[in-house]
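Input (Heme-binding protein):
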Amino acid sequence: MRAARAGRAGRLWCAAATLALALSGCGGGDSGSAPTGGIGGTPLPSPTPPPAGRLFADPAMESLSVGEVQQIMAQAIGEAQARGLPSTIAVTDRVGNVLGVFAMTGAPASTTVSRTTIGGTAAAGSEVGLQGAAVPSTTTAIAKAVTGAYLSSSGNAFSTRTASQIVQQHFPPAPNTAGLESGPLFGVQFSQLPCSDLNTRFTGGAGASAFIGPKRSPLGLAADPGGFPIYKNGVVVGGIGVSGDGDYGFDTNTIDVDADDEEAIALAGIQGFAPPVDITADRIPVDGTSLRFSDMGVGDLGPLQTSFGAVNGPAGSLVAVGGYTSGAIIAGTAYGSEASGIRQSTAAEFVSRDAYVLTNGAGAGRFPIRAGTDGASVSTPLTAAESRAILEDAFTILSRSRAQIRRPLDSRMQATISLVDTHGQVLGIVRSPDGPIFGTDVSLQKARTAAFFSNAAAASQLLGSAAGAPYVQRVRNFLGDPNALTGTVAFADRSGGNLSRPYFPDGQVGTAPGPLSVMQTSTFSPFAVGLQTDLVAGNIVTHLGFVQSLNADTPQQCSDVPDVVAGQKRIANGIQIFPGSVPVYRGSELVGGIGVSGDGIDQDDMVSFLGLHNAGARLGGIGNAPAAIRADRIVINVGGQGVRLRYVNCPFAPFLDDPAQNVCEGL
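Output:
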């Protein structure tokens, strides 16, 4: 754990043992402010107006040059030298291409995943999940850099410290917040996985597909301070990650301010490339609490070293990392270009000129809109026209909605929407222009998770998995339903998320963990959350062996859940356990799932639920699950009181163009 600075913990927090996540009157004060001298950012440029006939402006096509990557690395290396902490430093572009990794002489070759748990520290040999694993320091640095790049946009700049705050069992995490609900993005750390079938892989070759993103991360998203986004002219162009202290952990106490060497080194790296000050996380409140960006400030830094030639050799060297970089510095790709793998859609691909799609680098969409592939499992699969209508209506809701985590205020929501059939096959993915990259993989996880747990085959699929089998009986015992997970209940991701928390109801201490969480609350950590971790831990371990040239890489199919057909898994990029998805039904028959991610979990819920409803109202035949089978009909006895599962939660007055309130009520 990092040492807290004395005399800087005078922040006001509201401590209330309640089930409500809303912390109104419980402001974060200056909890995310840089301690001295800010972060070195610039004022936010005036928003670029959208072109005629458009609702969104396209982000400027900025990218990092080789010289700029060298400068960023030199600045970080110089600060590491000044602090006496030899470190591994990684830089990526916005879509996750690793632009270079530098290992300083004396930097630890491996880093230990934190053993910190709710109950203290797990003893060696008693850890669950990834706790206590020794992993290459190159992989932790890359994961931090990817996190800074993927969580950020032109409207919000989030760091790995921000990520730490929003993925723990209570929000905000602190000794006096027990009883508050879990972080809004609880579980997002297990996305961008090395086994994901959506995220692309470094091949070391050339050609049109060499640099398309989004690229995978070796450890998913990081919660260990020391990772920041990199900006150029107000546009996010990448991320930096620093690993030097031998610990890959998270910040359990957001009341104090940490003197964190890794964070200072990364902050030095982004000088001249820092985000605009108006969009950093500490300017963005969530449910009344200001988020955190950095506990270190420019005033904590020594003189900047800007010459890469002065440190390359004397201080260490660039290194190759299997599956990520050949050992040279390369230039970044400009997000929005064909080469980046994400670009504006054509008229033939999607009706809205505001939509972006994933592409193969040579002009062809990776996930074109199509009909369901699951004719062997459902009586009438989704047609291509129905798939298109669902995505169109969901994108319309997204385009009208007020953003939750973007600046300036009253910006439009930006996110990614994914649609799948009951086999988990992608029927289309569309994005708004500046949605955070992390939401691409996460929206697909959400869509697949809703379809998976609502499927009649869910129990049999989990029973066919060594990792998943123990959870089936736990769910059945917990719900008091011997037939649970056989398609009789429609589960949204908010519902499954309720069952995945280490406390049930969410946040309330002294109760049993949810059946999809860890067996004992005291063993929980962001690296051991239960089923979500267990399904993919084997893939991550195999991949880390590949990075060290010990074995072949993990397949591009997550989990040991049996294939639904040869070579296809229903949850091929893992499951997700925070809100933003609903299953798709034709009458009473499950036919797919829709997931949304990028700009506030209530907004994500609304876009999936209301978009699907509107498509069904327009076409007929398809829509949300019948109300009688939705998970919010389940009431669980907890200490003699009934606790109802949740299905979706829509914002109160969400639209920029309509004063309508309670827009999901009665649907």
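Confidence is low (pLDDT under 50) at residues 1-36.
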